[in-house]
């Protein structure tokens, strides 16, 4: 099709151009919500509170301090830190002055951490005192790092000559904040985050100012995270992995108060902050909510203000959704990836859904949801043909959009397939655009030519009252190729004999899924292997059950 637009002489719009700069987010928060609080539980043990105006000033001091350390635009600066106000200052101080804020996941193995630092060629690392032991183990392996800076009050700084450790607070005290945020090309790199590397070497995803700003606009929308200035938001999802789902950016653009939980993520500590700070919404992966729900149940507590939770990173079990709903908390199920900054979809009801039955509405909200504006998605079959949006056909999920990766950092191989990013997830999409993940492509169980969804099995089993957490993997089978095995960690209070419990769990599936897709067996373990981001570590779980054989083979 030819266009009528004269490409030599187009009529251009006559609007201002301003590059989309991350610093502008915090400047907006200072100007419009200067007195709104940012509250942090610190590694020092106390609660710290200040305002967006204070934060913006200190972020400017960060920009001055890193320049004084000799760090230059484009260079990577690492952080190994909890969710807290100093980490937020680094997000803005580093990116805002043209350097790249490289957030590092401390839950990775030490070899992976030093691999990542070396791959990124980080020039400085800012870390919380909790991670001093990691720093001591890796600093010799990381020659590119010229400065190790501990984020703690000066009087608590540990003595150390190897490596020599600088104090964050001392660095900031030397600056006056007399710094103007620079404007530069909005496609400049702003932040770097490595994938967990559960199936190979971690890969770097390099975000830009533009991609981050567009993600921030879209992720705050009502049918996305739905953040408003009246909200008090507690991101439990860590700032060291995919920018805490963009919340450090979406709160300041909306003016929401932020509550950072620091290192204490157990049920009691989270509950205390939710109540004492009047938190209205929070966000995290399902495993962090298990502890909170267990605590609420055992102590027979209620929430006073908390009414909205974003759950993503792995599938939100329907039982968890019901438990939260019963406590007055509405769940938004969201899907994303490091490669997507991370938000791709969020579940919400459309006007046409409102007249549906409660059960139908629940089914919609249990899906991963519709793509937010800026992300396109499609599912394809093995031949690359696009599959219909009928809610039944399932295939490989591909996405494209303004905040989707085009290349991994320092890699020449494009991950794209004809301009689309293959997510590695298998999904359905219905007529209304609601996407549902059926599995990671490497986790689906192929039994007798049919595909069984390990996620569906886990979701059903999670509703069984005696199960704390469970995982389903495929086991090779002489007749069917593969069959599902369910691995279960029991709740602590359970005293039933394993055999009885196994029978009860297996019959719990009756009527909930076709007979041939019910697991062949249930095995109990004491602790579930989880990844550095709190997801089921399927590779490790498969390793644990390598060579496992079913006692009675399903026939
Ligand atoms: P990694 O663990 O490799 O760092 P990410 O944190 O980027 O990866 O995780 C991305 C993957 O997590 C997705 O491809 C998908 O498999 C899974 N995921 C994320 N959100 C959901 C969800 N709501 N339901 C099911 N799976 C999800």
Give structural notes.
The chain is an alpha/beta fold and 555 residues long. The protein has 15 helices and 25 strands. The chain has helices at residues 23-33, 52-68, 85-96, 110-120, 132-138, 168-173, 209-219, 247-254, 267-276, 286-299, 318-326, 358-366, 454-462, 498-508, 538-544; strands at 37-41, 47-51, 76-80, 100-103, 122-127, 147-150, 165-167, 189-194, 204-208, 232-235, 257-260, 281-284, 308-311, 330-336, 343-346, 370-371, 375-380, 395-401, 421-429, 435-440, 445-447, 450-452, 467-477, 481-490, 521-524. The strands form 5 sheets. The protein has a 9-stranded mixed beta sheet with strand order 2-1-11-10-12-13-14-15-16, with helices on both faces. The protein has a 7-stranded mixed beta sheet with strand order 7-6-5-3-4-8-9, with helices on both faces. Strand 12 (281-284), helix 10 (286-299) and strand 13 (308-311) form a beta-alpha-beta unit. Helix 1 runs antiparallel to helix 2 (52-68) and helix 1 (23-33) runs parallel beside helix 8. The protein is globular, with a radius of gyration of 24 Å. Adenosine-5'-diphosphate (ADP) binds at residues 195-196, 198, 312-315, 333-338, 342, 368, 423-425, 437, 440, 531, 533, 535.
